[in-house]
Every structure is written in C-alpha cells, then in structure tokens.
Amino acid sequence: MNTLILAAGEGTRLRPYTLDRPKCLVEVDGESLIDRQISVLRSISNDPITIIGGYRAEMLKNKGDNLIINPNFHDTNMVWSLFCAKNELNGDLLISYGDIVFSRKILQALLDSDSDIAVTIDLNWESYWTMRSEDPIDDAETLKMDNNGIISEIGQKPTSLKQIQGQYMGLMKFSHKGLEIMKSAYENAIKSGVLMGKDIRNAYMTDMLQHLIEEGHSVQGVKVTDDWVEVDTVDDLKSKVTLDRLTRISQEIPSFI
C-alpha cells in the first residue's frame, strides 16, 4: 500500500528550529521526525512513499521515493497540499501528517481495517494532551463516534471534554473507492470554492472528513491506545513524553531495518 506524507507546512510554532528546515526534519535525539516515521513504515512494507513538500522542500529530496511540491504552501492548507499529488491518489493509500510518528501497532491496526475510509483515533488522548498542555481542551478537537466506531463529528472546537471520545492523529487510510469519493468531493469544492464553509485553499483534512460524513459516507474510527507523538510546538519538541514515546517506538522496530 502506497503512502503519502503531507509535509509542506512552515512549522511556525517550532521556531527557531524550523528557520532552516521543514517541520518534519526537526530532530529529536538526533533523528528527524520524518526519518522516524519512514522507519516505522518500512518496517512493515517497502511500498512507495510520496512526500508533499513546500517550505524548504529541496531538503526532502532524499526522503521517501517521490517528492511533489505544493508551490503555494505559504497560503494553503492540508487538503490543497494533498491534491497537489492528485495523480498519486489511486488504489489503496495511507495518508499521514509529516509532524507525527506512530508505533508499528498503530500502523498495523489501520492496515487491518477493511473500511473504505479509516482514521486512527487515540482513546487515551487526554493523558497525552495533559502532558502537552495545561488545559487539554485548548488544542484538542471534537470527536464523536457510535459504538461501532463510525465517526459522526470530527475536528470542531470543543467546549467540554464530553465532546471528545478520542483524538484524531493525522493518520488515515483510503481504499480506491474511498479515494474516488474524496476526489469527487474535492472537485465539487473547487467548483464552489468552499469546503465546510472555508475557502478550499485553507481547508484542513478534518474539514474534508466532516464533509464526507455529512454527505452520508462512512468514516471508520480505528481505536488505538499505543504510543505516538505529534511535535507541533517547541514544548512538544523538548518534552520528556515525546522522547520517551519515540524511544519506545524505535525499540519495537526490527534491527534489520
């Protein structure tokens, strides 16, 4: 299964560490986020990995198997970056953010899903967010799903912990059918100029997922509780929980990788 990594952003909340490099090349304990993520991916499959770069994208040329540039990275968001690689949106596809690293267990759980659109959801998000922020609601998003894990709401601003049954990680899988559904939604959004009330150029992946849900398509939450990290701020980069989790993730990768 091919993988597409979204890594076009500037990472302004990680200044000064992103002054000279893309966010995904920021290092923890001497190893970049994207190298760590690729190691996990390669530990399960050697299928092609495409990276969508933007800010200082020339530094990503030796990462993965293919580099596609979003030349408008400075004023666009995730959905726009994704469709810079529209020719790669075929077959079954993993899509991941460039500022996260996840365990083999989480990756395998997603790969095991037979849903056309599947998204990993961290059920233990609150303990992780509490270590990252004084108020976990400040940087969390709503996530509601039924007993079967079918998501009904994702990516909105919460006012209460009751609105958060888990947390979206930025790791998802689309079957060929799922990709066709998303491509159709994107084409319609391009014609109208908006997605979920936002300029299509500024839409997040959660906006796309919520749109698909409201159009009646099933988005499956793959419930996970294992280690993963998001490095979005300087505090994330320097935190002990980030290093501890990344160490455990690295230790589970076979030594021959």
Describe, in short, the structure shown.
The chain has 257 residues and is of the alpha/beta class. The protein has eight helices and 15 strands.
Bin the helical content. Answer: 25-40%
Cα radius of gyration in angstroms? 17 Å
What's the main sheet like? 7 strands, mixed
Give the amount of beta strand, in percent.
Answer: 15-25%
Structural class: alpha/beta
Strand order of the largest sheet: 5-4-1-6-11-8-14
Using the alpha-carbon principal axes, give the shape: globular
Count of distinct strands: 15
Please, what is the average pLDDT? 96
Q: SSE order in H/E notation?
A: EEEHEEHEEHEHEEEHEEHEEHH
Oligomer type: single chain
User: Unreliable segments (pLDDT under 50, ≥5 consecutive)?
Assistant: none
Number of helices: 8
First-last Cα distance: 18 Å
Describe, in plain words, how this protein is organized in 3D.
The structure is a single chain. By secondary structure, this protein is an alpha/beta fold. Helix content is 30%, strand content 23%. It has 8 helices and 15 strands. It has helices spanning 33-42, 78-82, 104-112, 125-132, 176-192, 205-214, 234-238, 240-251; strands spanning 2-7, 27-28, 31-32, 49-53, 66-69, 93-97, 100-102, 117-122, 143-145, 151-154, 167-174, 194-195, 198-199, 220-224, 228-230. The strands form 5 sheets. It has a 7-stranded mixed β-sheet with strand order 5-4-1-6-11-8-14. Strand 2 (27-28) and strand 3 (31-32) form a beta hairpin. The radius of gyration is 17 Å and the shape is globular. The two termini are 18 Å apart. The model has no long low-confidence stretch (mean pLDDT 96).
